[in-house]
Each structure stands twice: as structure tokens, then as C-alpha cells.
Amino acid sequence: MPFTRNNVIPAKAGISALKGFFFAALSAICYGTNPLGALHLYAQNYSPETVLFYRFFTAALLLMVIMLSKGSHFKISFREFRALVAFGFLFAASSLTYYASFKYMDAGLASTLLFLYPLEVSVLMAVFFKEKIKVWTVVSIAVSMAGIALLYRGGDGATLSTVGCLLVFLSSISYAIYMVMANRINLQMGSVKMTFYAICFCLVFLLLYSVTLGSGLPPVLTEATSWGWGFMLGLVPTVLSLIFMVKAVKSIGSTPTAILGALEPVTAVSIGVLVFGEILTSRLIAGIILILGSVVLIAVKKK
Q: pLDDT per residue over 237-283, tens digit each?
């Protein structure tokens, strides 16, 4: 076959798609490492709000460096300010309840239940914005409920913590509301800038919670390993996950990126089993597969 321009374009497109899938997988895997840093810091007797403070403080510094290196400006309008304050509150609520759930259930199971947020987004859009609920949405919800039923009662007959399940639900619904708001408000700014301000306001709410209802002002970390895990949480599941996600969406679109997001709970489950000795039974595996399958189904059908 003659070498023409038409022969080159598909090859370039194929390489771009492969890079996109690679970045999407990296983004999901990076986000799935949240329990790795959090559980190590819990073992050093730090509270969830303290762990989150250092995670987001580090992430804010790193994002600020990225913005300065790109010559981005920090100016925002009053409309953007109001929206970003709301985003920061939802970030704080979702993160606090998610990290707190690690105290009541295995981190891998918490990460799997958190992954229900795409289904919750569909329900919120239907309830508040009259988006028609499709048949596959109902099927996805039914499949996910079956998965939750399997997770709720483990193979040994013991049930999951009701408090833990409630915390994960509050975390996922907070994140779902954040996603709906971000989509409807449609701020005209880059994802790095938006995330930077959302994290800054998140830090304010975390401090307010810590002082009024939590463990007080976050203590200064005294060990090098504590700083290391705090930096890891700010870099890997926050900044790197964001950067890889943006690159993936630009290359392959939001739907394939969302589908590969299933690697998030898979990563968290693997860390829980291999690093922290969490028990994984065949019943729990079946429940996880059903939940991940329900999210993948709705993502594919939306496309």
C-alpha cells in the first residue's frame, strides 16, 4: 500500500488513544492509593481531619506552583467565588466522611461503595433537572443494590458497620452533588485553577470542623514518615490523579475515562489486602464486581 497522509492519521490517532487509556488508568490507580497514606497516618494516631489537612495543604502548594509555572492568574469573580466556596464545602464533606469511614470498615470496601457516585449523579439529574431515567439506569441501580447486599453481609455472616456505610454514602452523595454543580455552573476556568481554589476553601472548612467539632488545630507532624505520607497524599491521589485525568479526557473523552475509573476501588482493595491484611472473601469479590459492573454499564450506555 502506498505511504500517504491518510495512512499516517489513523496511526497517530491510535497512539493518542493508547496514551489516553494509559493516563486514565494512571489517574484511577493514583486516586485509589488514598487508603495507603491515610491508614499509615491513622496508625500514628492522627485524626481524619488532620490527615486531610496535610493532604490538601500539600496539594494546594503543588497546584500553586503549577499555576505559577504556567503564568496563570489567580483572579476570580464574585460569581466564581461563591461557586468555589460551595465546591470547597462539598470537597470537605466528601473527604471527611470518606476518610472517617476507614475507621469503621475496610478501606477497600469503602472505596468500592464510594464508586457509586456516577449512579447518584444520574438520579440527581433526574430528580432536580428532569433528565429522563433510562432503562439501563434502573438496571444499573438494581445491579449495584445487589452488590451492596452481598457486601453488607460478608462471607462469615457478619454485617458491615452501619455507621461506616452511612459515612460512605454521605461522601459519595456529596461528591455527586459537586459533580452536578460543576457541570451546571460551568465555570470558565481551567481544571487546575478550579481545583486549587476548591481545595483552598476546603482547607478553611476542614479547619473550622477541626476546631469546633474535631480534634482541635492540626498538630505539627513530628516524624519524617508522617511528612512523607502527608506529601504522598497531596501528590499522588490528588495532584497526579487530576493531571492524568485531564490528559485522559482530552485524548479519549470523559466516558472511557470514567469507565477506567473502576481501577480506583480495585487499587484500594488490593492495597487493603496486600498491605493491611484485609480479608477478601468470594462473596465480597462478587459484590465488588456487581458494583463496578453497574457503573461501567451506565457509563457505556450514556455514551
A: 999 998 898 888 788 876 677 778 888 888 998 898 899 888 878 88
The grid cell for 130 is 428532569
Distance from chain centroid for Cα 285: 21
Which residues partner with 153 through β-bridges?
A: 159
Cα dist from 165 to 58, 169, 172, whole Å? 29, 6, 11
- For the residues of 198-259, what is the DSSP string, one character each? HHHHHHHHHHHHHHHTSSSSPPPP-SHHHHHHHHHHHIIIIIIHHHHHHHHHHHH-HHHHHH
How distant is the alpha carbon of residue 296 from its chain centre?
Answer: 16
Question: Exposed/middle/buried for 271, CB within 10 Å: 0-12, 13-18, 19+?
Answer: buried
Q: With b meaning 16 or more CB within 10 Å and e meaning fewer, what string describes 242-252?
A: bbbbbbbbebb
Q: What is the pTM of this model?
A: 0.85
The rounded distance, in Å, linking the Cα atoms of 229 and 226 is 5
Q: For 68-123, how does the pLDDT look when each residue is reduced to its tens digit (9 = 90+)?
A: 999 988 999 999 999 999 999 999 999 999 999 999 988 888 988 888 887 888 88
> How many whole angstroms separate alpha carbon 77 and alpha carbon 230?
32
